[in-house]
Amino acid sequence: MNRISQIFLRPGFSGQLAAATRAQRCWYSADAAAPPAAAVDKATLEKLVRTNKVVVFMKGNPQAPRCGFSNAVVQIMRMHGVQYDAHDVLQNEALRQGIKDYTDWPTIPQVFINGEFVGGCDILLQMHQSGDLIEELQKAGIISELLKAQQAKDEQDAKNQK
Amino acid sequence: MFGVSFRHLARVSGRNVNEQLRISGISTSKYCQANMSQQVEYPIESAMRQALTTELKPVFLDITNESPMHNTPKKAESHFRVLVVSDKFNDLTLIKRHRLVNDTIKKALEAAGFEFMHALSIEAKTPKQWEPEQAPEKSPPCLGGFGK
């Protein structure tokens, strides 16, 4: 008997297959009325948001964001040269629900600086535009690349004036 | 070789037509809202508008249904952008303003029997921070994560 049919004949295989299809289905219909997965609890999230100075909950990952708003956050972080932990909520429905409950904030992405919830894409974008983000990062001990570039330019200008 | 490039062109122009349809879809939705009294074609948008108007007494309010930008059925109400200009924001931090808008909408939708929408982008300004000619910001394009 060849290997494939052996696998099919193995007891319990059909059960595994059914479970796998079920899991798949849940994953794809995360937004529909799928039975809600138990949300990740508060204590776990409290630790998770402090694993790095900046922690981002997003759709997709920084290399391949799956949502325009998440992508905007990634691009802003890149401009400021920030190293951060990113969590893909599309891979984990319990995390997706957990983080929304934790912050009482209905949408993704969500950004944490020093363990504190800062906001979503719109807020981060406005903070970036107003310069507040540079300050917030500084409070967390992160010097933004944009600030460094500005300082370098100022120094250069001062030298040129002499 | 030519066949391929023509087909390619056709596909591109087909996409343009879709693009135009989408844009007109957005404007139709706005038009319908102006004539709300006749029929509630966009119940979520209408509930949002009503709640934001009564709760926040905005100097200016713009609601855009951006669902057609995403992979959604016709007349979907999943993605929204709001620009609210209100005195109520005067002493509030950015995050508190957003929470106020979120909560107002959440309560109104709950009362009307709807779940919170999939995506809501908020601009919350005080009258001082806003000029009447200022258009709302634009949302980034969809990257395909919706419905996943």
TrEMBL record, chain A:
Q: Which Pfam families match?
A: Glutaredoxin
Give start and end of each Glutaredoxin domain: 54-118
State if Chloroplast is listed as a keyword. Answer: no
In terms of domain of life, where is this protein from? Eukaryota
* Listed GO MF terms: 2 iron, 2 sulfur cluster binding; metal ion binding
Write down the PROSITE patterns for this protein, in alphabetical order: GLUTAREDOXIN_2
Q: Which InterPro entries match?
A: Glutaredoxin, GRX_PICOT-like, Monothiol_GRX-rel, Thioredoxin-like_sf
What is the protein's given name? Answer: Glutaredoxin-related protein 5, mitochondrial
Lineage, broadest ranks: Eukaryota, Metazoa, Ecdysozoa, Arthropoda, Hexapoda
From TrEMBL, chain B:
List the record's Gene Ontology CC terms alphabetically.
Answer: mitochondrion
Query: What ranges does the record give for the region Disordered, renumbered to this chain?
Result: 127-148
Family to which the UniProt record says this protein belongs: Belongs to the BolA/IbaG family.
Q: What is this protein called?
A: BolA-like protein DDB_G0274169
Q: Which organism is it from?
A: Drosophila rubida
